[in-house]
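Notes from hallway chat w/ T.B., transcribed later so I don't forget. T.B. wanted the structure written out for a chain they're using in a teaching module, and asked if we could keep both sequence and structure tokens in one place. Agreed to drop them here.
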Amino acid sequence: MSDASTESTIQSTVPESTAPTPAVPAWPDGAAHPLTDTELERLHRWWRAANYLSVGQIYLKDNPLLRRPLTREDVKPRLLGHWGTTPGLTFLYAHANRAIAQRGLNAMFVTGPGHGGPGLVAASYLEGTYSDIYPNVSRDERGLKRLFTQFSFPGGIPSHVAPETPGSIHEGGELGYALSHAYGAMFDNPDQIAFTVVGDGEAETGPLATSWHSNKFINARTDGVVLPILHLNGYKIANPTVLARIGDDELGALMRGYGHDPLFFTGGFDGEDPAAVHRRFAELLDTALDRIAAIKRDAAAAAERGEEFERPAWPMIVFRTPKGWTGPASIDGKQTEGSWRSHQVPLANARDTDEHLADLDRWLRSYRPEELFDEAGAPAPDLAEAAPEGTLRMSANPITNGGVVLRSLRLPDFRDFAVDVPEPGATISEPTRVLGEWLRGVVENNPENFRIFGPDETASNRLQAVYDVTAKQWNADFEEHDRSENLARAGRVVEMLSEHQCEGWLEGYLLTGRHGMMNSYEAFIHIIDSMVNQHAKWLKVTNEIEWRRPIASLNYLLSSHVWRQDHNGFSHQDPGFIDHMVNKKAEIVRVYLPPDANTLLSTYDHVLRSRQYVNVVVAGKQPNPNWLSMEEAVTHCTRGLGIWDWAGTEVEGEDPDVVLACAGDIPTIETLAAAQILREEIPSLKVRVVNVVDLMRLQDETEHPHGLSERAFDGIFGSDIPVVFAYHGYPWLIHRLAYRHDRHSRIHVRGYKEEGTTTTPFDMLMRNDTDRFHLVMDVIDQVDSLGSRWAPLRQRMEDERIRARAYAYEHGEDLPEIASWQWGDGGDEPDQRSATLATGGDNEG
């Protein structure tokens, strides 16, 4: 934690102001009226303009208003982008804008088919937000040329909805998370609505299929509203989509089974008059919003009466339109509109053939741009009138730039929760249980902007103290005993046995300006590998975008980890999420392995204060020794790693003979046990013990902001001294992180190497050669001065491993002197204090 721990330490002692909990704001419910002829004309013109701008972005680099004949030189040399979904998105955006302007809604637009990027860029340009943020993309012909040229162009913007797109919180590079992000954004935002478009290709993904159940977790009174719009245009890249090829009866039964109230719309087929399409959809959208307003009124009235409000059937819309709507009906004699051929770039040879260039010219001119833009190239005045004003514009909603509305957490002083450590290893704690006591205060102090998400494991991971001050939010049916099991209609803990949903909810919550954390079993956090990839990429890009303000970090607590999953077996033994995360950009990723309860408290205080990071904290929940007092823990965490001089036998002023290094709570125990054996057996050996909390400190300073200089690394680990390193995860990661420093390949790492089963805790360590006896053997092997002189000790260590395994296989538990080992006990018989260590794993999960 080297860069911010000092700040964390100072802040935690400063009293922070308290504020009364504000009342739940009323639902925006302005007077609505049917679509008038004037509104219809303006709405349709806005849609034409948005579609023209979208096609222009995909194809043109010059001649943006077609004020001269279109030439091949006006067309980009590389045509990239996606047209097929875009006209449906711009249609929905236009109608959402009408509803916002009438009703005064605070709204955001979540684009599941994120490859409809040109449509969302076009919408924010027509609303004026784009030019406000990017003045070089001005509202004139020169700005239009820039708008078109930059799209999918070197030095420009991506083809998907991305951080560069105003109003977006949802990266379009991956499908499946639109609803989970939207629901996460709506937690604790009671006066907001998320118009959330689910593409029919996206709807085939597992995460999206599960996310329809999010409506069981939203509270009609204290949370906002998600209006899902299932956009069925019939095709993916080259195939039909499943939900587009089942009838409305079957699809309606599916949506009602999920607990939604589906409204069906089909439009744009067989040459239907656009005016009729607009009128029918405006009426349907008004119906949906009227039902939402009624639900909100009923929920508020129930709250005033002190009554519980049962879960409503929230409306959703099934929206069937042609793929590539308003585009060329056919190209080269093959159907295009209403076909998979319109998915990406329908006229892929527009720069290469006269025929396709003529087709593109006709397509662009079909929107009649001369009627939509004035002489200077600015959008016609009535187009601006079709959009809401100020922050009611979806592209300017403050919550979509979450750092703007972010409020710092009011954190209790973590020192007040310290465990007593009169001597290293003299007391025992369950680290995550201690953390849970502190998190109880975090929840209590931040009742509106902090949530804990997890897949049914908050109590299993020993954080259940939070239930003293909150409940698990649950809006499905209740059994009589549920309230005694910490379920309630509103609460700060949200659990669903889907890591995808917990991750998506948390990301949406953070992206809209709040704080949170996710706890999970270490082995199963891999389920969201791809999701955290996208979030880390989002953070990396927003670091480079001045107008995107920093958001709270994405914080993980991984417990029930590899070394204490001996009871659940091989399937639950995988520490590889750390390896996955260190592939991300160095300025984004932080990995912490606190060795005991006090270092965990200090670490988590730090990560909850941080911004723009993905923080991975791995800590065990089982009883473990406490090594450092709180003062020592803060200092150790601030450094990120350090020499534990009380554990070694080195002589001040002289180089050690060997360095025993460790990272992780269980490797720390084994390293100290090995150090104790060496102290007793080879008292002349000068041993240095180094513990690493911040894994990124092992990198070179040129590769990571927390990395050590060559001089600093050599100061800790020596320049030519053998290092035996016991690591929590896969051993090769340490080599990878330290390779610039390990010039002579002197670091010898022990860690998990895919040797696991249902067995005892110590047998798990022996299977992976990370046990204390093997570490001693490694020291004898690595220190040249020991060699054959200490072969008898090495053999005794081998014999001890054989004895330990035989005992475990006969008795089903570890040797008492191992299970109850404590620092400095010299192998004495177990006492009452240390006996709790023998519990090993539990059977939860």
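Follow-up for T.B.: The chain has 26 helices and 22 strands. Might be a good example for the class.
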